[in-house]
TrEMBL record:
It comes from Pteropus vampyrus. InterPro entries: PGAP1/BST1, PGAP1_TMD. Residues 393-404 have a biased composition (Basic residues). This is GPI inositol-deacylase isoform X1. One of its GO terms (molecular function) is phosphatidylinositol deacylase activity. The chain crosses the membrane at residues 209-229, 278-300, 346-370, 430-449, 465-485, 497-526. It holds the Pfam family PGAP1_2nd. Coiled coil: none annotated. One of its GO terms (cellular component) is membrane.
Length: 533
């Protein structure tokens, strides 16, 4: 009277016939190519037989392997290697007994930043047909078990990493369950995988990379402003990035703040100032704080900032070449004015666009306007240099005349070639910052575009306050040259702001990217104000 869909039964006190049976199929584990059942005999003292039911299907073939063993003899402890062994050392265990099942306990494995490679080598003797072994990685505190099927004899590599860290109050151990062949011997080796550790860093902290990129650019931006203040000239973006973007300028401050927040008096002061919770503390509470993760991300961020700057400067040069091919060559501005006649009108139009549609859309339009101004300046400088190559005497006279005109007139500054180059260096850094602001506002723009048929105005609009400040700021900066801010009383103060803001980006923006633009617009706004003070 048992369900024939079941396949294994236990007979109670039977001799030649199974009159009363217990269905054990629900205890079995269904694995690829096999069904496995492990019973603790002490739990079934009344069972006299085990019966395997197989339907009589013509041509069917099956094998039943059975063994008795003590649990502790098949449980083997294998401590994993240290995180900083970088795969140079390994731990090994050899399974010499001819068993069907082994339980390998992976000790000291419970953090998401740990990653290993397990290599299982099987050696078989007297085996003529193909045998399958199955290796199951079981993580008790999360649902992330994985199966690996191997045809023995062979060498099989298993990737070992976590999706969820082990809870503090959980004492369970990660297990490697091996369903093996009695005709084979197995050797299990575990070693640290540095490439997979980096993969775990990117996987769990890759979302923080834009914050580290922007922090590096801010440090370079501050270096350029200070160079302009101290020497009167602006350094190249790549040079100043290499000089200023150092982890020791940012990380120690974040670590110090995290340490001080452990004291009650500092935490109370922090709350009085209405400051948000430090992102490093949030990540620690989620068991997602990697050792040296900030240093790794800072290195990746600086590399990204460098290649992003190289890409943007190359794009500006290509667009300026296209501009010169399509239009008549431009000249360097004869009269440098912070506010041109069409600037207030354009600013008002963009603010209206931001109010009536979407702030991210207005930011994008502002970005395109700024790029257009820089491309035009690059085209003008290229034209000037080409004319200087063709007629150097005339160019020197023109340069002298320009310098004389600059010295004699306070209100009408003529832009020289060196000033234009300085301005382009500064603008390239501003473009990099503005590019990341545009990228971080993209989700809002995409949402608005996808729902444009339902409503024209995005409400609520998280980018609208930022757009109201950024539009006039970038409109002024697009018409600003370094020569017009060299003598500004605000320049020194402006050059000192990017460093604490770079720290703020990492402290408050690595896990909350929406906060990052709020730190970026402050030095841009101060840079624009240098034209008036």
């Amino acid at each position: 009277m048992l369900d024939t869909n079941s396949w294994i039964f236990g007979c109670i006190n039977s001799t030649s016939m199974c009159q009363q049976g217990v269905d054990l199929s629900w205890k079995a584990e269904l694995l690829p190519t096999i069904k496995s059942l492990t019973l603790r005999l002490q739990d079934y003292p009344s069972l006299s037989h085990l019966v395997v039911y197989v339907p009589s299907i013509h041509g069917s073939k099956f094998v039943v392997d059975c063994e008795f063993f003590k649990k502790e003899t098949r449980s083997i402890q294998l401590p994993v290697t240290h995180l900083f062994s970088f795969g140079l050392s390994s731990r090994k265990v050899i399974l010499n007994t001819s068993g069907l099942f082994y339980n390998i306990e992976l000790l000291n494995f419970g953090q998401i930043y740990q990653a290993f490679k397990i290599n299982v080598v099987s050696k078989c003797s007297g085996v003529k047909e193909e045998i399958t072994s199955i290796y199951k990685l079981h993580i008790p505190w999360s649902y992330e078990d994985s199966l690996t099927i191997a045809q023995v004899p062979s060498s099989t590599e298993i990737s070992l990493k976590l999706h969820i860290a082990q809870p503090e109050n959980d004492s369970s151990v990660a297990l490697l369950k091996m369903y093996t062949s009695s005709d084979c011997q197995y050797e299990v080796t575990v070693k640290t995988s540095f490439s997979q550790i980096l993969g775990q860093v990117v996987r769990f902290h890759g979302g923080a990379l834009p914050a580290y990129v922007i922090s590096s650019i801010l440090l370079a931006y501050g270096g350029q402003l200070y160079s302009l203040f101290s020497t009167g000239h602006c350094l190249e973006y790549a040079t100043v990035l290499d000089k200023e973007a150092k982890p020791y300028k940012v990380d120690p401050f974040v670590i110090m703040i995290k340490f001080l927040l452990g004291y009650k008096w500092f935490k109370e002061l922090w709350d009085v100032l209405l400051l948000p919770e430090l992102d490093a503390i949030v990540l620690t509470s989620q068991s997602m704080c990697f050792p040296l993760v900030s240093l790794i991300l800072f290195l990746f961020g600086t590399c990204t900032a460098y290649w992003g700057g190289l890409l943007s400067s190359t794009s500006v040069k290509l667009l300026s070449s296209l501009w010169l091919a399509l239009k008549r060559p431009s000249e360097l501005p004869k009269d440098i004015k912070t506010i041109s006649p069409d600037l207030p009108f354009l600013t008002v139009v963009l603010i209206i666009v931001s109010w009536a549609t979407c702030g991210a859309f207005a930011i994008l339009l502002t970005y395109l306007y700024y790029v257009f101004k820089i491309v035009h300046l690059q085209a003008s400088l290229t034209t000037f240099k080409n004319s200087q190559t063709v007629n150097p005497k005339h160019s020197r006279r023109s340069e002298k005349k320009s310098n004389h005109h600059k010295d004699s007139t306070a209100h009408h500054l003529r832009l020289s070639a060196s000033d234009a180059e300085d301005s382009l260096r500064m603008h390239s850094t501003v473009i990099n910052l503005l590019t990341w602001i545009v990228l971080l506002s993209m989700p809002s723009l995409i949402y608005w575009l996808k729902n444009l048929r339902y409503y024209f105005k995005l409400n609520p609009d998280p980018c609208k306050p930022l757009a109201f400040i950024l539009i006039p700021t970038m409109a002024i900066l697009g018409n600003t040259y370094t020569v017009s801010i060299k003598s500004s009383k605000l320049l020194k103060t402006t050059s000192q702001f990017p460093l604490p803001l770079a720290v703020g980006v990492i402290a408050f923006g690595s896990a909350h990217l929406y906060r990052v633009p709020c730190f970026v617009f402050i030095p841009l706004l101060l840079h624009a104000l240098c034209n008036f003070m």
